[in-house]
Amino acid sequence: MIEQTLFFFAQNPLLMLFAVVALGYPISKLRIAGASFGIASILFAGIALGALVMAPGLDAGLKKDISKEMKLVYELGLAVFVYAMGLSISHSFWAAFSREGMKKNAVVFLVMLASTCFVVLLARVMGFNARYAAGLLTGSFTNMPALAGVIERVKSMGAGPVELAQPTVASAIAYPIGVLVPMLVILVSSKVFRVNLREEADGLKDYQVGHHKLEVWTMRVTRSEAESLTKREIRAAGRFQVVFGRVLRKAELLLPGPDFRLKLDDLVTVVGSPDDLVQVAALVGERSHVELDRDQSALDATRIFVSNWEVVGVPLGKLDLVNKHQAIITRVRRGDLWFVPSGDTVLELGDRVRVTTRRDNIEAVEAFFGDSYRAISEVSFLTFAMGLAAGLALGQLPIPLGHGIVFKLGFAGGPLAVALILGRFHRIGPLVWNFPYSANHTVRQFGLVLFAAGIGVISGEGFRAIVSQNAGVLPLFLGAALLVCFVADSLTMLLGHKLFGIPLNIMFGILAGTHTQPVVLGYASHHTGNELPNMGFATVYPLATILKIVLAQVLLALIR
Questions:
Q1: What are the CA-CA distances from residue 205 to residues 210, 244, 281, 528 (Å)?
Q2: With a threshold of 0.85, does the pTM exceed it?
Q3: If DSSP codes are grouped into helix, strand and coil, which group holds residue 365?
Q4: pLDDT digit string, tens, across residues 56-113
């Protein structure tokens, strides 16, 4: 019965693909000590089922057909995943070139370079070949796009099933270590460095961008100094992340533009975090018991989905909402966080904005922003296909590195590079490259699932052969992964916190970003009790991904 079932899977590769997903996905949701392996569980399920189905007795022609179909599946999944991911992280990538961002990325660059050298040293001491070493690097840093780049490179060398499986096997064994070790480092770091995380976080309010909840205060202008300041100048005075909503002046409700000047006895609504609101109140006067935002006699507030392609990619300052549309955006929700916008804020499809305007103008403002839930669930397949095609073409261009080494960005690096560039510009003429947050997240997950399942099935035969020929491979790679992660994570914390003086709350996010591991990020946020790790993670994630894709393939050429 079991043999018949396995043969049935072998005859129906598409069915086998989704059987792998169905087996692995529930496992990905299991949590052990607060951690889970996420999509990597599908990779493990694919290896297991592939090892059973691709048995020695299976017809060679059938094996070849399965490998061919799964190859197309994992290449498609990888290309879709990295392209969508590149669009989603492009803003963080380009923002990382600030002074603070350069420090954080310098840590990642040095750590990844040192880790690659350390893996080369380990490979020579332990006798690993280049394929095992490259898999060890990608698994220790839990990065599937880098693994895919290695597999693509190995495949181009004419490798057989066993050789092709070697990087996948090494990566699969090292992957759990790449999740657990950084979590342990986070757990002990505050004690080792003698840092009170809560006190440190209290002194880093300026770093925190985005909140689960913003507050609205009504303030009365009682300080004469405030009369000489515009709304723009008040924000700049203390680098406050606040928005002024409406002003009551002598029984008249007004919408303040950027250069609007307050007058004594004005009542003004201000949106922001509690800490910023306290400081603004001290600057302009005092908090009032009047709840001006509840006055809907002339002005009202509504929440609107941004689905109009025309407003995407344009800074709010250029939209000139107050003068052209008699409206003010008081807050923006992107993903799970709210933030207050500025004139430089660029809206994205799927953002939900809180808009204050005249009651008779609400429908016109809704039409301007789109407010279509259906539209923000859709993807423009024209721009998606154009961008992905450009990325795949770029990935096939040979890049000479000298000494006879020719490097290709491949199915991972090409689409990622193009997505980072297109995402930076948001739009070119009528073409909008980014797509809604929810749609992007879904596309990314689906692509990653296809890649993990496809590459797992292909590697199953080689995994069985490797384990049967060398039973000691498992403890050997576990020990090597422990060494790599311990050295890399210790170096990350020492360089970042001690040498560059980066706060520990943010360093935890950098550590998670170095491993490109959301599970570690979730643990870091839970451990700190704040969102500061997110900032470090978002800043270094793009560079860490690109470095792993490049260094893992360079490593193949370094070890002979």
A1: 11, 20, 17, 14
A2: no
A3: helix
A4: 666 677 777 777 788 788 888 878 887 887 887 777 677 667 666 788 889 999 999 9
Tokens of residue 201, six digits:
């976080």
3 state SS of 256? coil
* Residue partners of 266: CB distance under 8 A and separation at least 6: 220, 221, 247, 248, 249
- Facing residues of 219 across strands? 268, 287
Share of the chain above pLDDT 90, in %: 9
CA atoms of 147 and 77, how far apart (whole Å):
13
HEC string for 30-98? CCECCECCCCHHHHHHHHHHHHHHCCCCCCHHHHHHHHHHHHHHHHHHHHHHHHHHHHHHHHHHHHCCC
Q: Give 212's DSSP letter.
A: S
Of 524, 513, 463, the C-alpha closest to 184 is 524
More confident residue, 427 or 188: 188
Q: Which of 220, 74, 166 shows the shortest CA–CA distance to 461?
A: 166
Residues 193, 195, 201, 207, Cα dihedral to 10°: -30
- What is the C-alpha separation between 179 and 176, in angstroms, rounded? 5
For 142, how many CA atoms within 13 A lie in the half-sphere containing its CB?
27
Say if residue 416 is exposed, middle or buried (CB neighbours under 10 Å; 0-12, 13-18, 19+): buried
Instruction: Give the count of alpha carbons within 13 A of 180, CB side only.
Output: 12
Rg for the chain, CA atoms, rounded: 27
